[in-house]
Backbone:
């Protein structure tokens, strides 16, 4: 077969260029060398690139989420970023925001600490700029019958960051762990409550629960743990959502025994619940634990990360779940993080101690689906799950102090044979 020959056929005239064609047999074919491929081929390439990007996106997002999984929690900032707009004798006017309507909530100002109680009354904001809320203010620390107008902070802990306010004292446990100890105010029980706080929370988080427990006759020990911004950071700088921090809770249990406890109840709030669950699985002193209380328990890291991914705007269930899977995989690769060890809710069928689980139905930090899963899996003769309507993250006591206290003290009396 004859080889095609290149034939130059010039075209004359203004605006015309010569066109090179390739002669093949009886046909003249245009020479496409150096020209762009047809539009359809570009679409294929763009589509293939998008597929690759979509495949890589969960891995990239997973790397970012893994940073959050592995970082020590530290302490959250607590600035006075709100304001008291007006005051009268024994009352304050505040902007209308979710926590301001809780039955009991703390108010920290530059001149003291107050508890807001009584009903929430809607009033016009000073200057007529919308609706505000008026609350009764009871001083806990500071002078005067009501705080001055100015910077303030609402505080769900409802008590200041000082154990002496409730008769407690500061101690340091083995390993340099700052802790608070509170004696019982009623005739003391031989059972102590050992409390593990939530992620980035201060020890003061416990105070609303300490108040009801000591009134019921239980001494309380509130412990810090490695990486929480109160105790020392872990040597390798890696956190573990309870999977690495739990030995410090075991140390706290040993300290309670040294201080006279015959046995203990473990109380875990939010991430503190994960420390409790791991201590029960692996702790040297797990055998002295009589009962367990969980509030807003972070007992499934996977479900919690998926909720947080949704809050950060990841648009689909598939992208959220694959990104979380990638985050846990990266955490395992980078720091030998054991993701399965953080899925305590799936093992609730193995729980062998009386357990009370309290969880707000409107929790936007730790999904209530975790506690509902516990209710599905656990033995209902041992595990009592209370889903609290209209309640947010660790706000059960604040929403209904009397009802919350009744639920807890009744459970403990029955679990410990004191009822």
Residues:
């Amino acid at each position: 077969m004859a080889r095609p020959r290149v034939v130059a056929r010039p075209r004359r005239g203004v605006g015309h260029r010569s066109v090179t064609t390739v002669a093949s047999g009886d046909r003249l074919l245009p020479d496409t060398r150096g020209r762009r491929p047809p539009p359809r081929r570009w679409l294929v390439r763009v589509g293939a690139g998008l597929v690759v990007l979509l495949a890589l996106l969960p891995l990239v997002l997973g790397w970012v989420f893994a940073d959050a999984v592995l970082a020590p929690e530290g302490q959250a900032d607590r600035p006075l970023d709100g304001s008291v707009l007006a005051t009268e004798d024994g009352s304050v006017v505040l902007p209308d925001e979710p926590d301001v309507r809780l039955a009991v909530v703390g108010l920290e100002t530059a001149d003291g600490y107050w508890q807001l109680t009584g009903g929430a009354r809607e009033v016009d904001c000073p200057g007529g700029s919308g609706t505000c809320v008026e609350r009764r203010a009871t001083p806990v620390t500071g002078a005067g019958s009501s705080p001055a107008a100015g910077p303030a902070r609402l505080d769900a802990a409802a008590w200041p960051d000082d154990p002496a306010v409730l008769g407690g004292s500061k101690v340091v446990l083995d390993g340099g762990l700052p802790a608070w100890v509170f004696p019982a105010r009623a005739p003391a029980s031989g059972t102590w409550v050992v409390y593990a706080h939530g992620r980035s929370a201060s020890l003061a988080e416990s105070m609303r629960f300490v108040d009801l427990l000591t009134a019921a006759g239980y001494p309380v020990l509130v412990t810090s743990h490695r990486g929480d911004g109160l105790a020392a950071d872990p040597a390798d700088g890696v956190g573990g959502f309870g999977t690495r921090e739990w030995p410090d809770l075991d140390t706290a249990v040993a300290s309670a025994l040294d201080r006279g406890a015959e046995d203990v109840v473990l109380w875990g709030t939010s991430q503190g619940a994960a420390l409790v669950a791991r201590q029960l699985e692996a702790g040297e002193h797990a055998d002295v634990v009589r009962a367990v209380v969980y509030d807003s328990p972070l007992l499934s890291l996977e479900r919690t990360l998926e909720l947080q991914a949704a809050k950060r705007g990841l648009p689909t269930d598939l992208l959220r779940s694959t990104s979380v899977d990638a985050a846990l995989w990266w955490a395992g690769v980078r720091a030998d993080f054991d993701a399965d060890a953080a899925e305590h809710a799936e093992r609730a069928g193995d729980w062998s101690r009386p357990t009370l689980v309290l969880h707000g139905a409107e929790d936007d930090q730790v999904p209530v689906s975790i506690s509902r899963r516990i209710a599905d899996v656990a033995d209902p003769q041992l595990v009592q799950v209370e889903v609290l309507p209209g309640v947010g993250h660790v706000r059960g006591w604040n929403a209904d102090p009397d009802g919350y206290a009744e639920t807890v003290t009744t459970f403990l009396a029955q679990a410990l044979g004191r009822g």
